[in-house]
Amino acid sequence: MKALITGASSGLGKDFAIELSKQGYDLVLVSRSEDKLLDLKKELNTNVEIETMDLSIMDNVIKLHNKYSNKIDLLINNAGFGTFGKFYETDLLVELNMIDLNIKTYHVLTKLFLIDFVKRDSGRILNVASSAAFQPGPLMDTYYSTKAYVYSMSMGIYEELRRDKSNVKINILCPGPVDTSFNDRAKVSFGVKSLKSIDVVRYAIKCMNKNKLVIIPSLKMKISVFANRFLSRKSVIKITYNIQKSKIN
Questions:
Q1: Are the CB atoms for 53 and 30 separated by under 8 Å?
Q2: C-alpha torsion sign, points 99, 103, 79, 101
Q3: Domain containing 209 — which CATH number?
């Protein structure tokens, strides 16, 4: 079995690599940071291939798929980042880069590898979204919107595969705050205790192997997502704004 993991140099991606290697997976690790990938490779006992590239550049995304088409059993779309601030004050070019990475890269890799998987009737895709996918996110508008896209797209794909009685599987990981380098890049600190990345990964793999569609680590976050269904949209965005504002370093 071979897994391809994007954003593999740190955080969830790194821990997915460690845990899957323990389970016997050969790995393709993708990130912009070659040094970190090389250090990670030394920790792993299975075969590891390293691809150093910026996946917000579409030519790189296509090259990656072309190289590993029909050679992958598990795709983990994990690369991504967020920014913080009022929509009319944040940097447009940074946001467009985020859309390229958080949406377009997910979309293209999911589509191209899904075509491979459907043809052979086997394979699995785990798309890393976020609890941010379930509601608007004032002060992190673009990031929340990108994760809503990933969630909605993946849900639709699931139903198409189910109707076709396909053996191809798709899962969506929707964690709340996780202690990773994401926080530093977004320049925020969470007001609630963050989950440990390794705990999220172990829970995700467990649920993935049980074919659970939407994976939400922690009971607190599950309750929060459920409770949102009973609140007005205006109430949700007021609450979310206050939570977001408390993240300012």
A1: yes
A2: negative
A3: 3.40.50.720
Dist. CA 148–CA 171, nearest whole Å: 14
Structure tokens at 8: 């593999």
pLDDT in tens, 176-232: 888 766 555 545 555 556 789 999 999 999 999 999 999 999 777 667 666 667 667
Distances, alpha carbon 22 to alpha carbons 25, 27, 67, 222, in Å: 7, 11, 25, 28
Quick check: 42 and 14 in contact, CB under 8 A?
no
3-state helix, strand, coil in the chain (%, to 5): 55, 15, 35
Using left for φ > 0, alpha for ψ between -120 and 50, and beta otherwise, residue 212 falls in beta
Q: Domain range spanning residue 126?
A: 2-245
Encode pLDDT of 136-170 as tens digits.
Answer: 889 999 999 999 999 999 999 999 999 999 999 99
State how many domains the chain has. 1
Q: Any idea which residue has 């969630």 for tokens?
A: 151
